[in-house]
Amino acid sequence: MNKNQVAGAVKDAAGKVQQKVGEAVNSPEQQAKGIAKQVEGKTQKAAGHVQEAVQDTNK
């Protein structure tokens, strides 16, 4: 697992928490920020998967 995969997973988890907190306090803004953070995290994690696949191919 490379740093992009780890960082992406952390952002995704943080985004889920932020979204749930936004739901709990009835804040659409926080919910949207949480969803955006999840998307960013999933994208970064996917980039890490691609990066790892390329490295494995070059071995």
TrEMBL record:
Belongs to the UPF0337 (CsbD) family. Residues 1-59 are annotated as: Disordered. This is CsbD family protein. It holds the Pfam family CsbD. Residues 1-17 have a biased composition (Low complexity). It comes from Comamonas sediminis. Residues 4-56 form the CsbD-like domain. Gene3D superfamilies: YjbJ. InterPro entries: CsbD, YjbJ_sf.
